[in-house]
Amino acid sequence: MIDGKKVMLSGMQSTGIITLGNYLGALKNWVDLSDDDSIKCFYGIMDLHSITVRQDPAELRKNARTLLMLYIAAGLDPEKNCIFFQSHVPAHAELAWILNCYTYMGEMNRMTQFKDKSAKHADNINTGLFTYPVLMAADILLYQADYVPVGKDQMQHLEITRDIANRFNGIYGDVFTIPEGYVGQTGAKIMSLQDPTKKMSKSDENPNASISLLDDKDTIMRKFKKAVTDSDGFIAYSDDKPGIKNLIDIYCAVTGITVEEALNEFDGMGYGVLKEHVGEAVAGKLVPLQERFKELSQDKAYIDRIIKENAEQAAYYANKTLRKVKKKVGFII
Ligand code: TYM
Predict the structure, then answer these.
(1) CA of 12 to the centre of ligand 1 (A)
(2) Domains, the chain
(3) Is 46 in the pocket of ligand 1 (CB under 6 A)?
């Protein structure tokens, strides 16, 4: 609790421009939830997590700033929500170290993201990649978060966060709030447009597989036109038709209608028209966001002020928890 309010925390890695999957699975829900004045929200740009995969320094700096502006452009009010860079709050790295000593190798070995990423980056399986979920646990537990809104792929990390917190509390008393994951009703797992059995990811080598939040309308329409479907020729919402199912999921998440309503709307249509409708809906949602993004990009002084003020605010709350933890484990403070 902060000032009698429940706490929500989430974040994204600052690697590349975020995708429609990141937006529909996470960012859009954050914006919807941030209207609730009974919740104090923290949103991190998780740049420490980003370096678990090799990054170009200039690109990383640029992507991190872009991500902060995309959060704001999507509708997160930085005067109301605390939007901060993870690397600006040293408590994250400090708590992660402490929690590493309360986490087992076997637990980390089971993490599917570690397995996927180490297969993808076989030449750089660093220990940061291995202990990545512990840093994520630190992010969440530092702010005593009650809720963590994420896409489906992060739920395993949330479970391990709860396990670590329960273990620590079991030894030292009630230090951490046990967080709950929150996955939206729609858009929790948006799939690749080129291989609808794989999740949409910004690190996909095929640019047609994902929609970037900064793609212009023509690009969005072209990518949907090329989306891989099937050769049945009829629209149905079924696991046997992952391409069509994904297009319907995207449409529902963007427009807020139910699958049933979407199926009624698309009744009798061909795949080409369906793709056009989905493309139009996505572009309609992203174009205003992109306009706001453009304005923000021109206001360096405003963004710099947000970065500084929010880092101070985040550090204030994070340090409160860190001090408590240090005292509990026996450090002289
Ligand atoms: P990241 O940066 O991979 O993704 C950010 C958010 O987007 C969601 N997401 C998706 N949702 C639906 N469909 C998709 N195809 C899709 N791809 C990504 C993710 O579930 C996530 O919610 N470890 C985290 C970042 C992080 C974090 C945290 C999150 C670091 N510390 C603390 C919450 C709390 C990650 O890599 O997300």
Answers:
(1) 5
(2) 6-183+300-329 (3.40.50.620), 207-295 (1.10.240.10)
(3) yes
Of all residues in the chain, the percent with pLDDT exceeding 70 is 100
- pLDDT per residue over 309-319, tens digit each? 999 999 999 99
Tell me the pLDDT tens digit for each residue of 50-67. Answer: 999 999 999 999 999 999
210 lines ligand 1 (CB under 6 A): no
Indicate left, alpha or beta for 39 from its phi (over 0: left) and psi (-120 to 50: alpha). beta
Give the distance (Å) from ligand 1 centre to CA of residue 298: 28
- Predicted confidence (pLDDT) per residue in 83-98, tens digit: 999 999 999 999 999 9
Instruction: Average the pLDDT over 178-193 and give the result.
Output: 94
Q: In the annotation, is 223 catalytic?
A: no
Strands across the sheet with 82-85, in order?
82-85, 39-46, 6-13, 147-149, 180-182
Q: Are 102 and 134 in contact (CB under 8 A)?
A: no
Average pLDDT, the chain: 96
DSSP 8-state assignment for residue 192: P
Query: Ligand 1, closest atom to CA 190?
Result: 13
Separation CA 212–CA 321 (nearest Å): 36
Provide DSSP, 284-331: HHHHHHHHHHHHHHT-HHHHHHHHHHHHHHHHHHHHHHHHHHHHHHT-
